[in-house]
């Protein structure tokens, strides 16, 4: 082996007649100016007449896991990635890409520009650019269809979903899977392949796109764009990929680049990049370094829908789980829910039968609270009743060890009151999961007045192992997520009272990008839960504007999907407009002397969004959030807020102080009695700090 001829983030070395270019930009070899310059410099140093082939690989686990997204905030600089892919493709001797680890975005585009692709068994390949608001911009939309066909390319690029190495081999995306796993053996296998390779140059740009049924492709593209729920880059990606079947490679590349450059500065792309970085920042940093405690055995109390979902989530993360439920029928039902979910994963080929058996072997269903004595963490998920929860934790404290962490999954109750009788209260906290707990990614880690930094850090490490997006919140009614959603729903009820219909409101907010409108969500959740809460707070109802329509809907026996009717009728399990609901609403307005107004979709969207922005400001003013960005993370991961909109904090920052203050004044004016106004400086000051 010759000594490397280049340094920095790209190394070139010779292995006889094989030149090896190694990307070395920890931690994931992302594409930067220096990396791109390094690749071109390495190619320029290769003595072509003495070289049989070039190997392009990456130091560490990955070839290249994509671009450095921070570069997208500025104008492109040369050399651009398209210039690098063009150089690889036109290089006079064959270039062999070693696809390993996460080879995504620009990394896969580099590999596609090479003549041969070898992959390790654990490699993941994908073009996820649409998830950050752009499309592949270095030939991916034109080379991938030539490698795998238009239909597969549409699937991969429009959805952004990656494929595993074995599937990539089956699709023709990689030419061969590498057998060796040891680093030295892997390197020897790569070099042996390169020395034996005699296939010459095989640029994908010279390969024709396989013929395909255009009409079927367009139907496929429409379905995939619809699933993206308004994500602007998805529709653009579909059009550019389909163009690969109609245009020359040169014309397709030119169209791709033009669309990429147009998208990179869009509000959607900025919003998605903002969330990308916000989600990767630490949710909590203690003032003094803290060592999280080790957790091995987790107990879950309550085998209902939420408790069994939490238990399954924890089992999937590899923990041993004690599932306590005193009612034998409820315990059996909870176990069956867990088994049913695992069977579903087997049918979807996400799980093997051996893995299912291993998971179930770590589950200990029990009706005896003493079985929890060895737990490191106990998560309570029983009924939302303060005294019942308080009694449970008082009993639990005498069973488990003094250091066992104790968590409640309450949605609204005061954690300090729940844990009032627990000794060593620094070990107590809230872990608020969202239903279904094994699927929803948001987890609110709630700090009580006594929670220690060590307890908090342990919970966050636990959340990371569960693959949850955790935010740290203070102990207050509704925490962050439910507080925000309550304000949003309340504003939608104001609109309903003033003249809009449930269908119109739902349609407007779904068009904005929400996964589901608020009245469809209410029907799905069950209207009786909120009805019971309203009855419990009837004494304070006079302090703020109150809309009685939801009560009338419930009094008519319409409790949502479970009764076949709520705001909608569900004859075939799909929401359908019901004239009886329209009559209830019209009667209420007449009784209240309300003359209905006409609302546009934009009116509805703006009112709902401003309600979220205002509540976000109130939460920030009260110190409920650890970071302003946590509000946007909560809505994106727990409530179906469109990611490509960023979130209320992101949007408010784009508005500027004058426009934001004027909008908040309008919101307070139309919302009536009891509406608090948020302080815009909570966001505008933060935006100034962020710019500095």
Automatic annotation (TrEMBL):
Residues 298-475 form the 3-hydroxyacyl-CoA dehydrogenase NAD binding domain. Coiled coil: none annotated. The keyword Oxidoreductase applies. It catalyses: a (3S)-3-hydroxyacyl-CoA + NAD(+) = a 3-oxoacyl-CoA + NADH + H(+). It holds the Pfam family ECH_1. It is found in: Peroxisome. Keywords: Fatty acid metabolism, Isomerase, Lipid degradation, Lipid metabolism, Lyase, Multifunctional enzyme, NAD, Oxidoreductase, Peroxisome. SUPFAM superfamilies: 6-phosphogluconate dehydrogenase C-terminal domain-like (SSF48179), ClpP/crotonase (SSF52096), NAD(P)-binding Rossmann-fold domains (SSF51735). PANTHER family: 3-HYDROXYACYL-COA DEHYROGENASE (PTHR23309). This is 3-hydroxyacyl-CoA dehydrogenase NAD-binding domain-containing protein. It comes from Marinobacterium aestuariivivens.
């Amino acid at each position: 082996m010759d000594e490397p001829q280049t340094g920095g983030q790209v190394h070139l070395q010779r292995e006889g007649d094989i030149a090896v270019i190694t990307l070395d930009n920890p931690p994931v070899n992302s594409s930067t100016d220096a990396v791109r310059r390094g690749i071109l410099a390495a190619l320029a140093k290769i003595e072509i007449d003495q070289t049989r082939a070039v190997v392009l690989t990456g130091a560490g686990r990955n070839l290249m896991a994509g671009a450095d997204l921070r570069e997208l905030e500025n104008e492109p600089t040369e050399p651009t990635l398209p210039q690098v892919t063009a150089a690889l493709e036109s290089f006079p001797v064959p270039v062999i890409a070693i696809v390993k680890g996460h080879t995504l975005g620009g990394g896969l585009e580099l590999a596609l520009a090479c003549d041969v692709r070898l992959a390790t068994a654990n490699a993941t390949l994908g073009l996820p650019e649409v998830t950050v608001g752009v499309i592949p911009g270095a030939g991916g939309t034109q080379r991938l269809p030539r490698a795998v066909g238009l239909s597969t390319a549409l699937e991969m690029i429009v959805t952004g979903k990656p494929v595993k190495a074995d599937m990539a081999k089956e699709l023709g995306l990689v030419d061969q899977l590498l057998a060796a796993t040891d680093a030295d053996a892997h390197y020897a296998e790569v070099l042996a392949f390169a020395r034996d390779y005699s296939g010459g140059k095989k640029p994908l740009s010279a390969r024709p796109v396989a013929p395909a049924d255009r009409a079927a492709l367009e139907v496929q593209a429409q379905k995939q764009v619809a699933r993206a729920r308004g994500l602007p880059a998805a529709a653009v990606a579909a059009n550019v990929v389909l163009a690969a079947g109609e245009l020359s490679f040169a014309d397709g590349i030119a169209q791709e680049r033009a669309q990429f450059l147009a998208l990179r500065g869009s509000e959607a792309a900025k919003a998605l990049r903002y969330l990308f970085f916000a989600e990767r920042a630490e949710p909590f940093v203690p003032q003094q370094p803290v060592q999280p405690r080790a957790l091995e055995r987790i107990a879950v109390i309550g085998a209902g829908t939420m408790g069994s979902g939490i238990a399954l989530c924890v089992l999937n993360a590899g923990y041993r789980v004690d599932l306590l439920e005193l009612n034998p029928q409820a315990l059996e039902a909870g176990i069956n829910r867990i088994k049913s979910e695992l069977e579903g994963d087997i049918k979807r080929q996400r799980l093997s039968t051996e893995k299912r058996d291993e998971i179930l072997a770590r589950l200990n269903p029990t009706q005896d609270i003493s079985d929890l004595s060895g737990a490191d963490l106990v998560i309570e998920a029983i009924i939302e009743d303060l005294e019942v929860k308080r009694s449970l934790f008082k009993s639990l404290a005498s069973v488990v060890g003094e250091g066992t962490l104790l968590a409640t999954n309450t949605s609204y109750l005061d954690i300090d009151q729940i844990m009032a009788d627990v000794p060593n209260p620094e070990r107590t906290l809230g872990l608020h999961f969202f239903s279904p707990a094994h699927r929803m990614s948001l987890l609110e880690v709630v700090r009580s007045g006594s929670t220690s930094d060590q307890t908090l850090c342990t919970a966050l490490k636990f959340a990371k192992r569960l693959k949850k997006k955790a935010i740290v919140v203070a102990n207050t009614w509704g925490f962050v997520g439910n507080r925000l959603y309550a304000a949003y729903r309340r504003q939608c009820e104001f609109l309903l009272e003033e003249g809009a219909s449930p269908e119109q409101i739902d349609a407007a907010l779904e068009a904005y990008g929400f996964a589901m409108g608020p009245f469809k969500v209410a029907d799905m959740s069950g209207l009786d839960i909120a009805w019971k809460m309203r009855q419990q707070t009837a004494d304070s109802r006079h302090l703020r504007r109150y809309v009685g329509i939801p009560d009338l809907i419930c009094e008519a026996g319409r409790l949502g999907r479970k009764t076949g009717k709520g705001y909608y009728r569900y004859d075939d399990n799909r929401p359908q407009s019901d004239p009886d609901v329209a009559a209830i609403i019209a009667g209420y307005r007449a009784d209240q002397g309300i003359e209905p107004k006409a609302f546009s979709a934009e009116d509805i969207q703006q009112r709902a969004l401003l309600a979220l922005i205002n509540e976000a400001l109130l939460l920030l003013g009260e110190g409920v959030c650890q970071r302003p960005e946590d509000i946007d993370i909560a809505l994106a991961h727990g409530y179906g807020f469109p990611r490509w909109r960023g979130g209320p904090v992101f949007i408010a920052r784009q508005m500027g102080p004058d426009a934001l203050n004027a909008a908040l004044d309008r919101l307070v004016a139309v919302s009536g009695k009891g509406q608090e106004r948020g302080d815009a400086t909570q966001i505008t000051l933060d935006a100034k700090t962020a710019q500095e």
